[in-house]
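Case 215 in the screening queue. Each case pairs one protein sequence with one candidate compound; here the compound is xanthosine-5'-monophosphate. For every case the pipeline is the same: read the inputs, emit a complex structure as tokens, and attach any notable structural observations.

Predict complex for case 215.
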Amino acid sequence: MEKKNRLILALDVTDREHALRIANEVSDYVDSIKVGYPLVLGEGLGIVKELVEIAPVIADFKVADIPNTDRLICEHVFNAGAAGIITHGFTGRDSLDSCVKVANDFGTDVYVVTEMSHPGGVEFFRPVAEDIAKMAVEAGASGVVAPATRPERVKDIRKIIGEELSIISPGVGAQGGSAADVIRAGADWVIVGRSIYNSDSPAEVAKKICDEMNC
Ligand code: XMP
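Case 215 output:
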């Protein structure tokens, strides 16, 4: 992903017209659009084909299955035009390898969840987050997902993954995280959803977040 705006839009609206309107309004300020179950279950995977005309798409399906099923999911997502996918790591190295292999075949990116951004994200993830980050490096993933709600954890995870892998970081705005703080802690991109798409002026909010990050 080209690092220009450092902002990824989390497009968790559930209908096509709304999604395309928001995506078009903020397109000057985002490097990528993240879509997940809310939009794809609402509109089908075809929405990805429309959104890639506006910006590169990351599919947030938090893939977490056996290697063969992961492979099938990744193939569908990349055939639909997504430039990247978010996977879990707790399913183990063979499952992650399967995703990375498909991504390498398509020339796309895999981002692995380390510790999640919501309060419950510490319950089970905290003790394994650093091992998952190490595995992401060893498996040749493009990057990891780490919480903007805990910049100190982003710092810890950056130390583990070095400079080669990217950190994409959700939790800014509605979940309380600060874009500037998490970029300072070592994130490459922030992921922002509700603060932008629930606003009366999505482009103004997106611009403000970019300005906070000096991009
Ligand atoms: P909001 O509305 O809170 O949206 O700005 C955040 C977006 O990011 C997703 N999310 C996560 N994805 N690991 C992930 O892979 C996380 O820790 C995490 N926390 C939030 C969320 O589903 C929404 O799309």
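Case 215 observations:
- The longest strand covers residues 57-63.
- The radius of gyration is 16 Å.
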